[in-house]
Amino acid sequence: MKSEKNLVLAGAAGMGIQTVESLFVNAAKQSGLFVFASREYMSRVRGGINSTAMRISSRPVRAFKERIDLLIPLSDLAIPHLKQRIRKNTIILGEKAFLNADPTVKFTSIEVPFTDMATKIGNKIYANIIALGILAYIFKVNKTIVLGLIAEQFWKKGDKIIEENQNAIEKGYEMGKKLELTNPILKNFEITKNPQIINDLILDGTQAIGLGAIAGGCNYETFYPMAPSTGIGTFLAQNALKFGIIVDQSEDEISVINKALGASFAGARSLVTTSGGGFSLMSEGISLAGIMELPIVIVVGMRPGPATGMPTRTSQEDLELILHAGAGFFPRIIFSPGTIEDAFYLTQQAFNLTQEFQVPVFILTDQYLVDSYYNLPSLDLEKLKIEKHIVKTVDNYNRYVFAVSSISPRGIPGYGNGLVNADSHTHDEQGTITEDPVLRSRMVKKRLHKLELIQKASILPEFIGNRNKYKILVVSWGSNYYLIKEALEIINREDIGFLHFKQVYPLHAMQIIQYLNKANLIIAVEQNPTGQFAELLEKETHIPIDCRILKFSGYTFSVEELVEEIIHHVDKGAR
Amino acid sequence: MNTIFDKETEIHWCPGCGNFSALRIMKESLTELNLSPKNVVIVSGIGQAGKFPHFIRSNSYNGLHGRYLSAALAIKASNPNLHVIAVSGDGCTLSEGGNHFLHTIRYNPNITNVLHNNQVYGLTKGQASPTSNLGFKTKVQTFGVINEPFNAPAIAISLNASFVARAFVGDINKSKEILKQAIQHKGYALIDLLCPCVSFNNLNTYRWYEENSYYLNSSHNYRDREQALHVALNLENLALGVIYQNDRPTYEENIQIYDNDTRPLFERDLDRKKLEKLVNSFR
Ligand SMILES: Cc1ncc(C[n+]2csc(CCOP(=O)(O)OP(=O)(O)O)c2C)c(N)n1
Ligand SMILES: [Mg+2]
Predict the structure, then answer these.
(1) Residue A575 has pLDDT above 80, yes or no
(2) Rounded distance, CA B187 to CA A475, Å?
(3) Domain-embedded: residue A383
(4) Cβ contact A217–B269 (<8 Å)
């Protein structure tokens, strides 16, 4: 029936685990296997212990699972590090010394002399590529595809390096064959392939956001490196000249936001990418966007805080920060993608919405999503629209004119005969400083009214389950989407429904209340210690959220963990 | 002189403030250079000097305290056809915005930076600024300023700023000549504009500036960085005129995106074919 294997590779930073991960996942997909991969890594450049988890399956897989069917340790820290996830039937393929690293852990061991084999090829660094060869054999992934990917991966390094790496694949492949003969249990790793998916895309969250930005017409990106969002800046830098994007690694996050807003004033489609700490430095700039009514898209990749926290780990701790950052009142929009597709489409859409409403639009994501990937059929580029919402100014143009819709038509300097005056003070219609109480109140109301418009246009939450039969409702946001969806598929009860929010602010309370009212028990699932989204929901709907499943260890939920937790709360709640 | 940059509005500065002359110097220089308000953007931060764009007819961006150079750089990079003039005070530029001052110089955007230097915080009523003289007493610096003054021209030269000058608002004609050169310079141009505060600085008065400054003559080689630095390091007797100039490429040139397409960013559209190709490279 359902066939799926969970494969984990673990070793020190700098050992090439990510190379194997990306080569294997691509080769598996090109052979017709569904793939999902996510990684956890330390904030170090060398050493320590990192791991990558790959799910290889005959049906779509899109969430992290704890179970390990096959582990390849590339250092003696691997088994102690993954101890909690190793079971008696977990197969561990590795060097003797690594297999014996923790005698208290029980598993099915298969010894492979990686170092010896690698040294014979020319360098012990080839251990990881030999492992890739073994995997290719065991999973019956087409060897030619792997050899081709190797050539692509190492083409810059010259023929000798390519040959040695390809040789490592061959040796690994032979070893795989040998191991299978002596360990028939490895035969179970051949999974039914589906030729329809060999042409699928494989994207991680970082790439999806980067592509979404390009598809949204982004042409100005500023950032200051900070995990987990650095990859987006890098992705755009690598595509900058092709798409005419100015990518600027600026001196600090304060300059980042102020540059992005200056650019936006001059008509650029601006993006900034950061994490909680860097975003904290941008607070005053965000309020500047609010009063100047300038378009801006802000991607915040969450990691655990406070302060430096755990740089490379995941969390959903910054919703409240993003909700409230900046002095004074002004409207904003906050999206939080649940899927790789969301990451693309929401980012694309953010660029149009920010131009339309002249308010900051946030993409609030996290390390788990930006570093996860899976195969998907395609992205719909046909329907994409790029909306500019810019007017050619006339002689007596006033930037902040009181318009019926509350949205003052946006002119930009140098386009038309008018003058464009943007101001950080409370200003009049022209953009000149004022301290007039009546004008001030009208300007505040104008911005307040935009919030109502945004609310009406908001993306409604997605309901998953049986609308007529659910009595228990799980609510969540952002990257927990597939984790919860799969957990509920396993629990398989018609009386449990799931409401997922990818727009977390503003909320369309009337629509949401209908879903909440039908449930006897509402369970929120979040990766922070207080239930920040549950609190927001309560405030907006006045409906109490009965219980919360919260995790804040810095490591993502797993499907198994959620199955257990949800059942526990359902049983307790039904008492 | 009436100019097309004149704006009918109430001006918030104190009577006798150096900013009035600075405003006249700016409006007349822009007019004499035949620039049109439509293509000029005055960018400022917060402070008495930061209110400058409200009193001149042009496009404007009155941003945050300390952050105006970042905005100015980005406006120019997004639309190189605009003339971007960045104006703000000594506190805004060198204290709150010190880091941006340093780094904007490194980028060398083609903008003009007029630093209204009154050696005090005007808007917040008389605290010391980073350029206040040692010993200058205020309500906060009760026993006088103890921190070494921030020497903006010397720092700019040491970072190889492409144009560094000093001018004094007490001399409108000479200041106009200097400002016009700065605007015409291709690259980042700093003018340390001595601009007395009549309300909160009774040390650095019009008279004090006259007595403690001199004009550079033709013997000064403003292309010689070491000579320029030597001149700039002297804060006892302030040199007026162009102190240093070089021909470094500008930021807008360096980013290459205008090499084959001179259109500003707002006129451009996404190349959908290229996007499709990029997306398909992930198959
Ligand atoms: C972030 C922030 N901090 C403090 C202030 C208050 N503030 C406004 S202007 C100013 C100093 C002004 O001094 P300067 O830049 O020299 O301008 P001047 O008034 O002398 O022209 C200060 C501290 C502010 N507006 N924003
Ligand atoms: Mg000052």
Answers:
(1) no
(2) 55
(3) no
(4) yes
